[in-house]
Amino acid sequence: MFKNLFKKGDSKTEIYTPVNGKIVQLEEVPDPVFSQKMMGDGIAVKPSEGKVYAPVEGEVIQIPETKHAIGLRANDGTEVLVHIGLETVSLEGKGFTISVSTGDNVSVGQPLMEFDLEYVRENASSDVTPIVITNAQETGKQYATTDAQEGKAGETVIITGSDK
Predict the structure, then answer these.
(1) In Å, what is the CA distance from 62 to each residue of 1, 10, 73, 127?
(2) What pTM did the predictor assign?
(3) Neighbours of 103 (CB within 10 A)
(4) What is the rounded end-to-end Cα distance, in angstroms, of the chain?
(5) Known catalytic membership, residue 83
(6) Which one of 43, 83, 113, 141 is the catalytic residue?
(7) What's the number of CA atoms in the CB half-sphere (13 Å) around residue 88?
(8) pLDDT tens across 14-69, in order?
(9) Domains, in order of start, for the chain
């Protein structure tokens, strides 16, 4: 009798694009770690500017010393990795400016970092930015990516997760 009374409704997760630019399917990313989904499923964006915004409401859980990526945990537990460019770890943080810290709570569209897009284009193998769900198996959700061609940070939903 009380079973359905306390049952949670279908919870939906929306992950917004963290950068403005052209949306690219993960399989097209020129790096097997991402294209073969070794880190997890997701999507990528070819940035049109060097600004990164929070793709979810949640907490910053990881910022590597090299500042080339940022890990977030959405309020529903979904963990999202935003990886700026490919082979950018070798830049050793040059060209990246972080504006948040590990442990900070963030809102969709909040600025997280800036990067020198021209420097990344000249010194990394690619500027394409994968956005990956690193704990999809543990969330119990089914994720789908957008068909949109262009993304506007904080406005375009690029990944939607729903209960299985």
Answers:
(1) 44, 28, 9, 21
(2) 0.92
(3) 8
(4) 24
(5) yes
(6) 83
(7) 29
(8) 999 999 999 999 999 999 999 999 999 999 999 999 999 999 999 999 999 999 99
(9) 12-163 (2.70.70.10)
